[in-house]
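User: Run a structure prediction on this.
Assistant: Running it now.
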Amino acid sequence: MNRGKILRRLSQVVFLVIFVLLLRAAKWPLQDTTAVSLFLRADPLAALVTALALPHFTSAGQLLYLFVPALVLLVLTALLGRFFCGWICPLGTCIDIFHTVLVRPLRKKDSQRANWPQLKYYILVAMLIAAFFGTQIAWFLDPMPLITRSFATALHPALLKLQNWLVAHPDGPLAVLSSRLSLEAVRGRSFALAWPVVGFFAFVLALGFISRRYWCRNLCPLGALLAFVGRHGIWRRHVTEACVRCERCISDCKMGAIPADEPSQTRTPECILCYDCVSCPQVGITRISISVGGEGIETGTDVTRRRLLGAVGAGVVYGLLARSPLPAARKARATQHQFLIRPPGAIVRDENGQIARMMTESEFRSQCLRCGECMKACITNVIQPALLESGLDGLYTPVIVGAAGWCEQTCNVCGQVCPSGALRPFTPEEKYGILIAEARIDQTKCLSWGKGDDYLLCLVCDEMCSYNAITAEDTDGSGQLRPVVHPDICVGCGICEYNCPAQPARAIRIYRRDDRDAT
């Protein structure tokens, strides 16, 4: 019996369940402000890239308190090896489940040709160099933001729709399930770019049809970082001299960590300590245990200088292009920039702990992991992923979209769940002073600003405003009341835009304030 393999699978299931439960707990009111983002804060790649991308290097030290779990993981990896990928990583677990359920029944033999482990190191280097130039690109391939984003903005909304369907069909075939779970109708969620997110997650899983753990072998930048750090770990595979070279371990290894010409050797950077190789027909020949010797291990990464320089060049080029877009992209960005409204947690405090200002765009983009945690936690669905409002470098960063919802007056969950400090904690009382946007009325579309027979009394925006920033006034002495926005009071929560009855274009919208730094 391969007890190590059984323990590893049990560990994978337990950590995947914990990941899902923590993500589910990221909602308002938040019960625990530290645990919900634990997996993201335990991501060493996210910590490293965020620190490198910060426009002010003096701020990098402030990230340490957020990413202490990542430092702990790095230390354990250096000591034990690349165990995170095989025992903890939720994305790796999903890949293994997909392979067991769908790939294995259709493809019996693994491809030995799709083994390019050096590629992930070049990807990692390019990401780090781009980060040095202030551009966050790791979010796209980093497994922790990737799976969090997929679950938060795609799977979670789908489950909410299923829940509402079950509640709406109490006599359906799943009525017993709905009754036992005591399900209630909830506010649905929908996010822009949900289908591309689902598509990329499915693509990562489908790579298993090429080879087992193709993503982890060849593409994962976090895996590359952990492989480099943990290649001298003392938790290792050992093969005795009684090995008959049946090559069973070579075919069993899902990471290609055992050389085909020498099965007694182990490439420690690629070994994730999954214990699959211990299922050797000859009991006791192969084992995984603690050892400090150098016999039977290969710690090299086979990275070539030429390709490494190419990766550095790619990182420099992308970093510069993303920060200095082409004229056509700059024009599109300028058009959308007026709707670039960040959540209220994008604040900077002074040395006395008071809110000093809103973050600049450079500060915000460099710290945001694009994980979708704030979007999932938002109770009104007002936080959406950015498209071109902030250029290519700002893709999928969170923005406030008044047409999708509103920033609830008593809610501060976005600043509590953010793992990287892009959104920072604040109190509901402080929201009165956090001016994230400004509501403006288009008088040509507003019913109450119509003249003569076109006038129709509508004060929905005034009635809905939580901050009393909109008042009904007789602006021309005709006795007809019209809504007027007071910019010095308006915080730009978007509740007026969301509830405006004018269609198809709303008569009142929230806009980025002119005093915001656009850089």
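Residues 3-232 form one domain.
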